[in-house]
Automatic annotation (TrEMBL):
Protein name per the record: Cytochrome bc1 complex Rieske iron-sulfur subunit
Taxonomic placement: Bacteria, Bacillati, Actinomycetota, Actinomycetes, Micrococcales
Organism: Cellulomonas flavigena (strain ATCC 482 / DSM 20109 / BCRC 11376 / JCM 18109 / NBRC 3775 / NCIMB 8073 / NRS 134)
GO CC term, one of those recorded: plasma membrane
Amino acid composition bias (Basic and acidic residues), ranges on this chain: 1-12
Annotated compartments: Cell membrane
Keywords: 2Fe-2S, Cell membrane, Disulfide bond, Electron transport, Iron, Iron-sulfur, Membrane, Metal-binding, Oxidoreductase, Respiratory chain, Transmembrane, Transmembrane helix, Transport
Amino acid sequence: MSITPEHGHEPGDTAGSDLALREGENTVEKFPNPGFGPHRPRRADVDPAANKRAERQVVALFALSILGTIGFVVAYFALPPGETVASMRTSNLALGLGLAFALLGIGLAAVHWAKSLMNDHEKAEDRHAQRSSDQVRAEAVAVLKDGAQDSAIGRRGVLKGALVSSLALFPLTIALPLIGEVGEDWNVSKFKRTLWAKNKKLTIDPTGRPIKAADVTIGSVVHVIPEGLEEAEAPLDEKAKAVVLLVRLDPRDIKSEQGEGWSYDGIVAFSKICTHVGCPVALYEQQTHHLLCPCHQSTFDVADGAKVVFGPAKRPLPQLPITVDDEGYLVAQSDFHEPIGPSFWERLR
């Protein structure tokens, strides 16, 4: 495809009717610039009542944003997450709705303002060098001032107040949760330890029934928690740290462990908390002995000390040392020997 000059015009001549677009055997004359179509004024442009109504609608949308922010603040203090799933669900729902209305109000108000109150005349300008002349730059500043004047924000006191109020209050939805952490418990050492301890029985999640080694067949996977979890001061927090995946392999398939004697007759136990960003690792492939994290596909080899074989995780899943008691129940030899989870304050990854 090429553009060739016709009728004696030199390249670069912009006479639209004298340039032809040639493709193979076909020649198509370049069509003239159609320009802008006739401008159709909006109702708010010709009807003062409609203009005032549109302004009130924009103010109402900004007011919706303000109410959303206030609702977020009230929910933050009146509906703390608590220790139960129901209280956490209620708190998150209230905070989410408050944040949604705070953002939605600002967004809809800005769009409605632009579509109904600001200048809607189409404009076009030719491309020019990246750095405009001083005269053009001065004209651009003048255009910006004209735009501010055209929006009539200076003459619309209620609208301006609603805009400023909604934008001023909205940052509370971001700052308040951060400020609220001041004065909270910053003892990070408690994250180094879980409820697992010597002779603590492994129980099935969520029933809490102790499990015997004989109950675990080769190739099976069991989700376990420490015995007595429900009696902990904060059971949900403790469960989030202590959840473990129990897998039984053929002892001949075990290549290595993180500690000598940490498994029992092919049964190994690893933290379910992915060492990448903390998602639950729970997808087990029996033939390869691989554990997959569904969030970012980090893959761990259970037969080789849960070492990382693929994905963004940087370290193996921590292994829980286990054995059996006199009755054949699986019990922990100790807590994990390193902090569970993705990262830690004292650890460089």
